[in-house]
Amino acid sequence: MNPRTFRLKSGRHEVAGLARWADQFAAEIGLVAPVRGELQVVLEEVALNIITHGYGEAGGANEISVTLDSDERFITIIVEDEARAFDPTSRVEVDVSLPPEQRPIGGLGVHLVKNLVESMHYKREGTRNILILRLNRDRLRADQVVNGT
Amino acid sequence: MQISQSQKTSWVVLTLVGPLDETGAAELGAVLSPLTKGGAVALDFAGVEYVTSSGFRVLMKACREQLANQGQFVLGQMSEPVRRFFEIAGLGSFFKIVPDLGPVLADKE
User: Does any CB of chain B come closer than 8 Å to the CB of residue A140?
Assistant: First the structure.
């Protein structure tokens, strides 16, 4: 299929439109419900990360572009923005081994993304942040990766 | 997200339908806020499709408040894919998660 691109403004309420668009994409390529959920989580976390940490409060007029493509094995997600340089792959790992009473509330977004996708690459090109993620369409294979750690 | 509230013995039950994402989390947070002053609250997750970090944030906050007020906070009827999000988030033991809310809600304690 041809890749599809969606553009959203940098505002928290904009992510609902991204989710609706992604659901349409998922339906068109016949994605099974669990992987559709994973795709939605990845997209929301990456977009919110740019909205809150990249562009910040003053970001309303700025744009984020999300491109989705798919082959038999993977969904490729390319997210581009013009916020300050921000590499989500370098974020400090969440310590999931902490006892419940010591777990900080929040900070889980990038952790979820890292653990859901097959690969995640960041590059800065001129004024643009470009994040390329690959999500496995094969649920069983994705489970093996999680269980293997 | 659709949130319906019902009462079963001493429990307030919230039945959730839809994704617990940024939008759903804001809606759930508003409903939960007056309910986390103690007492017993159960969330029925059967109709939840996925949970994002915004959803986890609201759940963690509500759970902490509830426990600090000597209340109970239980999640149940979770599908396997949704349960997996809790495991990946490392929150499988943060919450009390039961496969079937039935026996919990029948309890009068």
Answer: no
Q: Do B22 and A15 touch (CB under 8 A)?
A: yes
Gap between the Cα atoms of B54 and B105, Å rounded: 27
Widest distance between CA atoms in chain A: 47
Chain A partners of B45 at a C-beta cutoff of 8 Å? Answer: none
Task: Return the half-sphere exposure (C-beta side, CA atoms, 13 A cut-off) of residue B90.
Answer: 20
Task: Please tell me the distance from the alpha carbon of residue B50 to that of residue A90, in angstroms, as a whole number.
Answer: 25
pTM value > 0.90: yes
A41–B52: do the CB atoms touch at under 8 Å? Answer: yes
Provide the ipTM: 0.94
Tens of pLDDT along B17-52? 999 999 999 999 999 999 999 999 999 999 999 999
Total count of residues recorded for chain B: 109
Q: Which residues contact B45 (CB under 8 A, 6 or more apart)?
A: B16, B75, B76, B77, B78, B79, B82
Task: Give residue A96's Cα distance to chain centre.
Answer: 20
